[in-house]
Design goal:
- It comes from Gluconobacter roseus NBRC 3990.
- Residues 1-26 form the signal peptide.
- This protein is mainly beta and 786 residues long.
- The chain has one domain (208-785): Maltoporin, Chain A (Beta Barrel), CATH 2.40.170.
- The strands form 9 sheets. It has a 22-stranded antiparallel β-barrel. A 6-stranded mixed beta sheet has the order 1-8-14-15-12-13. Strands 2-5-7-6 form a 4-stranded mixed beta sheet, with no helix packed on it.
Length: 786
């Protein structure tokens, strides 16, 4: 599924000279096709494929256009109408993929993965609390990982490199070529196996012609986004590209007590790529990246405070914070520090491809390092109820080797490969509870975690007939992780003099499983394909590594598995002026990993990851793209899903508290959620309309309108304080540009209705907090590409 704006309807011609000694085919003025004489020259004029979608465009049938004779008596001109929606190759593949192009990413100011949430159906991207880590949910499958040490259900790839750590996945995105959101169990053709799907981020590559450009985006709340790039060849077989960005300002939150602002960005990054072709069969790309984020953190707003009975904030853009001097000194923060980030990411990689004749060999080698320091006030008040300071250092090494058949005309297409990754993590988490009433101390939890995974995969596509294809895939993965040096200690206060310094033994979690898929594709008509698939995926188990007070909290979760059934169709009508794609899915979900609760004797209720024995999710998705007249592009995406717990009993924290008040005893009391709705957003809508109008012969003016709707979400069943109400967003804009497209000027208003909405609601100690979405932003953007 693809979105592409501001595209002309017909491509320019490409002149191809037929070699001497070959016969040429020519169209006479009457339209009759004749055979050229031997030894003469013939020329054909055909269109070029657009961008990186050459394979898809090549699949379209060219139309012969009759023209007047040229100076060459034996010539033809072939004009192929350009598909305004692109991605023609994907229209013949039985998978559900949402493609978001670089134009759309820039239009929505997408500078990190959180900006993707309203651009793809049934996709949720939420910050973990107010930290810089992110959690993904796709078609209702995901994990709220508050320590970012577990494998996500949705894997993020950047230029083919998997980023399984939430902080890495949440880092900046710039100089983009596009993003693909793929749904359902994956890992049969590349990378790691996961249950929910993938977000594949592709950054721009070096070019063989000289290009350079810049853009500046300025909006309300003093927000600015600056991008720069240069790309050119150094020689006939070496090219480079250097890109950088910086983002400043944008903080729209106010301290409800002092009026101070919060949320200003202060981050930037660089990326460099060098491509080398030692011969005409080999391409090697060396890359390096660096990013620094010294932004202010997003602030939490108080929904419920049971510790100090702070009234609920009626304006979700209000926040509060208040760090004790002892906590700031202990964590190395200076006095007066606001909630903030101090994150550094850097890495390097080598991508090697080689044409072996019968197949393409590709390898991807990558190393990524991160240093994360997040200071957060998660109660959103001036009291030290639930203040956090997270320090995590981690590195990732990955290696992939893949061999894929090369000839697209062979009946059997195949793809085999191996993937390995190793992560090392050290984390120190400070919690200040001194103002909570129930836990009057500062607590420190630290641990190390090592993880490595090795997987092998294979995928086949068999052409049974011209219109019928069968698919099969298998993957095996072994994931081994160790948690060690786990320690929890408390810094005593006058009201809590009890010593507490617990050390926990080494824990391990080993997952060793197979998964597989089978599918069918039937090209009923040249412009209509039906498909169906059955896929089985799994995700390895992991650890609860936050706020550990008893050894039982370190028992690893079991792996989760998902059996996915999907049927769908893809179609284009009226010479590619209308595209209509749809699918329906049914998920049988076992061992779903969720952030649950456990009761600790003589302590209270604590967080702990648990497995839900069985759940079911089903839904439908539809995409409609229309280009009824030149310049007018319409897009509508519809997603509807439902999920229910089939077998799930969880700690009833309200009953536990009531029993403790009545009897003075802490008891684990459970509530059955069998048949209860999972709380995932049922309806998601996303659409746009734009019209590229010609102003004379040299200029264009493009007004556009984008909108999205997201249904209500409830992450914790049975408590409506966690429910995020439904919301509707609308963006409008106007772009002026020359016909060449070498520069443009835009004015826009995002969230023009100024809707107030939440992006997440989570629990803190003795309370519930929320994180608000972005308010109305009015701005302008200037872009140059030369």
């Amino acid at each position: 599924m693809f979105r592409l704006n501001n595209i002309l309807m017909c491509t320019s011609a490409l002149v191809l000279t037929l070699p001497l000694g070959l016969s040429a085919v020519a169209a006479t003025p009457s339209g009759k096709v004749v055979q050229g004489a031997k030894g003469t020259k013939g020329r054909a004029v055909v269109s070029r494929p657009v961008g990186s979608h050459a394979a898809g465009v090549a699949a379209a049938k060219p139309r012969v256009r009759h023209v007047a004779p040229s100076s060459d008596p034996e010539s033809i001109q072939v004009c192929r109408r350009k598909n305004a929606f692109g991605q023609l190759a994907m229209q013949r593949q039985g998978v559900s993929v949402t493609h978001i192009d670089s134009t759309e990413l820039a239009r929505h100011q997408v500078t990190d993965v959180k900006g993707l949430m309203n651009l793809a159906p049934n996709l949720t991207v939420q910050p973990q609390g107010s930290s810089s880590a992110v959690n993904f949910t796709l078609r209702g499958v995901g994990l709220n990982d508050f320590t970012a040490n577990n494998t996500p259900s949705v894997m993020t790839y950047v230029d083919g490199v998997a980023l399984p750590i939430g902080y890495m996945a949440g880092a900046a995105m710039f100089d983009m070529a596009g993003v693909d959101v793929s749904t359902g169990p994956s890992g049969f053709t590349h990378g790691q196996t996961v249950t929910a799907g993938e977000i594949n981020v592709k950054t721009a590559d070096p070019t063989k012609v000289f290009h350079y450009g810049a853009s500046e985006d300025i909006a309300t709340y003093d927000r600015s986004i600056t991008n720069l790039y240069v790309s050119e060849p150094l020689s006939s077989n070496v090219q480079y590209r250097i890109a950088g960005f910086t983002q400043q300002g944008g903080g729209f939150q106010k301290n409800i007590n002092t009026g101070q602002s919060l949320g200003n960005a202060n981050k930037g990054g660089l990326r460099a790529k060098v491509a080398w072709q030692p011969d005409d069969r080999t391409n090697i790309v060396f890359s390096g990246n660096w990013m620094q984020d010294d932004s202010q953190a997003m602030g939490a707003y108080n929904i419920q405070d049971l510790a100090r009975n702070t009234p609920t904030y009626q304006n979700n853009r209000n926040t509060g914070w208040g760090f004790t001097p002892e906590f700031l000194k202990l964590t190395g923060n200076s006095a007066g520090t606001k909630p903030s980030y101090n994150n550094t990411f850097w890495g390097a990689g080598v991508n090697f491809t080689r044409n072996l004749g019968f197949a393409d060999l590709s390898t991807i080698s990558a190393f990524q390092q991160m240093y994360v320091h997040n200071l957060m006030d998660l109660d959103g008040t001036r009291y030290a109820i639930y203040d956090d300071d997270v320090n995590t250092d981690a590195n990732l090494f990955s290696q992939e080797v893949r061999l894929a058949s090369r000839n697209p005309h062979e009946r059997l297409q195949w793809n085999v490969g191996m993937y390995y990754d190793r992560t090392q993590m050290h984390s120190v988490i400070f919690n200040d509870y001194t103002g909570s009433g129930s836990r009057p101390y500062i607590q420190r939890t630290s641990y190390n975690q090592d993880q490595q995974a090795f997987s092998q995969y294979g995928h086949l596509r068999l052409t049974v007939t011209k219109r019928l294809h069968l698919l099969a895939g298998i993957t095996h993965e072994s994931d081994d992780r160790d948690l060690y040096n786990m320690q929890t200690m408390r810094y005593n206060t006058a009201v809590y003099p009890t010593p507490f310094n617990n050390h926990y033994g080494r824990r391990g979690a080993l997952t060793n499983q197979f998964s597989g898929m089978g599918g069918i594709e039937y090209q009923a008509l040249d412009n209509l394909m039906f498909y169906g698939s059955i896929r089985k995926g799994f995700k390895p188990g992991g650890f609860t590594a936050n706020n550990t007070v008893v050894a039982s909290q370190l028992n690893p979760t079991k792996p989760e598995s998902l059996l996915a059934y999907e049927v769908g169709f893809k179609s284009d009508y009226w010479n590619h002026k209308i595209r209509l794609n749809g699918d329906a899915f049914w998920y049988d979900y076992h061992g779903q990993q969720v952030a649950g609760l456990a009761v600790v004797s003589n302590y209270g209720v604590v967080g702990q990851y648990v497995n839900i024995p069985k759940s079911r999710i089903w839904g439908v998705e539809m995409e409609i793209d229309a280009n009824p007249i030149p310049g007018l592009l319409l897009h509508q995406h519809f997603g509807y899903e439902r999920g229910n717990y089939e077998n799930y009993s969880a700690i009833d924290s309200t009953a536990v508290a009531a029993t403790y008040i009545r009897t003075g005893k802490l008891m684990a009391l459970y509530r059955s959620y069998a048949g209860v709705d999972m709380g995932i957003p049922k309806l998601t809508l996303e659409g746009s309309a734009s019209y590229k109008a010609k102003l004379g012969a040299w200029w264009t003016l493009t007004p556009y309108l984008d909108y999205s709707y997201r249904g209500s979400q409830l992450d914790v069943p049975g408590n409506n304080l966690y429910r995020m109400p439904a919301y509707f967003l609308m963006d409008v804009g106007l772009t002026f540009a020359p016909k060449s497209g070498k520069w443009s000027v835009s004015a826009y208003a995002n969230n023009i209705l100024d809707r107030r909405y939440d992006v997440t609601r989570q629990t803190g100690l003795n309370g519930i907090f929320g994180i608000p979405g972005t308010p109305r932003m009015v701005g302008g953007r200037f872009r140059v590409d030369l």
